[in-house]
Every structure is written in C-alpha cells, then in structure tokens.
Here is the input.
Amino acid sequence: MKRRDVLAQAAAVGAGVAFAGAVSELFAGTASALGQTVYGPLQPDPLGLLDLPRDFHYKVLSREGDPLRSGEGMVPGNHDGMAAISSRYGGVLLVRNHENRSTGRIPVPIVPGLVYDPMGKGGCTALTLNNNNDVLAERVAICGTVQNCSGGRTPWGTWLTCEETEDKAGTNGYTKDHGFIFEVDPAEPHHSGAVPLTAMGRFPHEAVAVDPLFGVVYETEDATQAPFGLFYRFTPTRPLAGRGSLRAGGRLQAMRVPGVPDLSAVQDTGTTFDGIEWVNVPDPLAAQTPVRLQDFGPRGITHAQKLEGCYWGGRSVYFVSSFARRSQGSAADHFGQVWRYDPILHRLSLVIIFGPNTDVQLPGESPDNISLAPTGGLMLCEDGAGDQYVFGITRRGEVYPMARGRQNIGTPQAPEYGEFAGVTFSPDSETMYVNCYEPGTTFAIRGPWRG
Here is the structure.
C-alpha cells in the first residue's frame, strides 16, 4: 500500500481504534507537517508545558504529586487510559487509569471500600468537571490494583479498567491474584467497589470493547513474548443490564481462525476469513496455566503478538496487533495490523497492515491511544523518545501535530515529559483531554475546533 492509501484507510476505518506502537510512519518523517497544522503552526508555550496552535489554550486539571481534592492523599503517577463521561448533573466525569507497577513512585491511595489488594499501587481516579473544566471534585475511584493500562467504556456509562499483568498472590508481596478487569463507576465509586470480574479471565489485559446491541465484550491480551496473546469474547449471563451486571458471570471464549495459528502470517490487506470459531477457555482464572498456554484441542488456537487497541464501530469490533517480529517468535514481521471482526457474518478481515513489505516503515517512534476528533478525523498520542506529540489525521489523510510536549528546556515548570496517553473528547466535543504519562499530568484543551 502507498502512504496515501494507508492514510485514507486509517482515517476512514480506524476512527476510535486504539493503536499502540503500530503506525508511526504516519507521523514521523513528515517534516512539513511538524511545523504546520490545519490550525496553523504550534506556538511555543512560555511555561514549557504544552505547545498548541494559536487561539487554542490549555488548563492543567491535575498533576502527579499534588493533593487530591478529596483529601485522600496525593495525585498518583503514571497517567494512562482515560474516558470522558457525561454527568447526570451536568458537566463531565473524567475517569483516569494509573499504570503503577510495584515500583510506582506515587501509588493510588488506599481508600476503604475501594481497595482490592492493599499491596497494589495501581487503580483509577475520577475528576468531576463543570462546563468550564473547573475541577469540582477529584477522588480515588478504585485502588489496590496493578498496572491499570487501558480499558473501555460501557454503554451504561461506566469504565472497565484492565490490569496488564498476570502476577499471582505472593509476587511483589501481593495478597491476591492479579490480571483482571474491574468495573468503575466514576459518579459513585463505592457503588462499584473493587470487585474483579473473574469470569472475564485472568491474563495481561489491554483493552475492551462492548457490542452495544448484544452486550458481548471483546478483549485483547498484550503479550510481547511467545507464546503470544489471544483475542477473546465474553458473553455475559446478563447482557446490557447496567452497572454490576457483569459480575453475574458469563462464558469466556478465544478466537480460532481455521488454518491460521498466528495472525502475523497474514500479509495482504483485504484478506478475509469466514467461519470464525470461538472456543471455550478451559480455565479462565488460569489457576495453573496461563490462558494462552492452555489446551484448546487438537486444532489449537490463534495467537498474535502485542494485541492492544480494541474499539467497537458500526456493527464490528476492531482490534490491533501493534507489531510482530520473527526474532521474538512470530511467524512473520509487520509494524502493525488492524483487524475487523463482524459478529453477524462471523467474518474476520485484515483492514490495514504496516511494513515491512510496504512503503510504510517503523522508524522507532510510536503512536499509542487514539480518539475521534470533532473534525471527523483522528487524534493520536505519541509514545517515543524526544519531544512528544498529539498528532491529528484529517479525513483526507493529512497528518499534522496538534500538541507538543517538549523535553526539559530549563523553564521552572517544564519537567522531562514521557508519552502522551488517554486522549479523549468531552461529550459536547468542545474539549480535548489528554494525559502525559510521567510525570502524570492531565490537560484540558479548548479552541476553535473545525467541524
């Protein structure tokens, strides 16, 4: 595929798909784009925090190490996945993951009634904002979990936060097994508590997407080393029944593509497989054996390296394999695949593949989270070295930087920033919210968004 074709397909098909380290050539090497945007050139921020186009402005909502407005402790670090949900009282509820491992500098404070494992340093915080993005409240929404990376919204307005680990009790001092999905209600955290959705499996979760018609939940497993992860579906016992209904259990299955043990072997855009099979997971809790190593019968199961983003769009679920490397055990090399599964037709299609057999190459910089922009295009977060960007893609496939976080340039408030993460828009499309991962900072950005 030529670059123009790739960009056009990515803009048309990928709206909302959470890429992670897959399509950096869309953004790197475009020198003309780096200095200019559809809104004009980026303006250096005197504070050195965030460069934006003229007439756009940011507000810092929350920073790692500041006091939580609830008085529960300090704002935790490692800001990652995030969602903006309408508040029934007006304004916005912003729910934010903290991907703290056992070495996390500032853990999510332990709050009674919201804690899963008192030795876990991860979790979520929730911010209540008014229509001017003033922070009215900020509090812990779940704590005592580990490595909360991404997740997904539910149709009923809660957040499914995912642990990207499979550490068991006794590891790093943990008192409970980890690797679960938890439902978080940002409006009433104590109503959701800290209950692991055990029937949805225990493995290194990345992201989820909920079928709004039938309530099936699709899940990705992020495994870099062989044997690689699986793509799952969870059929709830009580589909679409609202907050807490996923605790009633259901059936967890893994996808089998007949004749395809490794998705990386598929190298042609547009390849389609009919008759996709779903095989029951023998032991969802992985009591003795990780799920991806369990016995799925003589025909085996389909694996893929680095399964990350997952998004429901139209009548299909999209999911991403961010890269595959023969040197690490994959059947073939690529720099990213975007797959679409149509549950009505039981059909799996390869929407896009990036490199090495295309003119789209991976130069080392990686976009991560993605969101639909008010313009109808996309916003993507960069996760790489040096200055970090939030990039946009127009409907015509033009790439431009929307925001830039510069490395330490000597100004008092300009720390050395890590990746951008958690880009999302307010329900009224007036505000873009985005996190800097480390040191954790949450921004609200407003300006003359074009329709």
Observations:
- The CA atoms of residues 182 and 211 lie 18 Å apart.
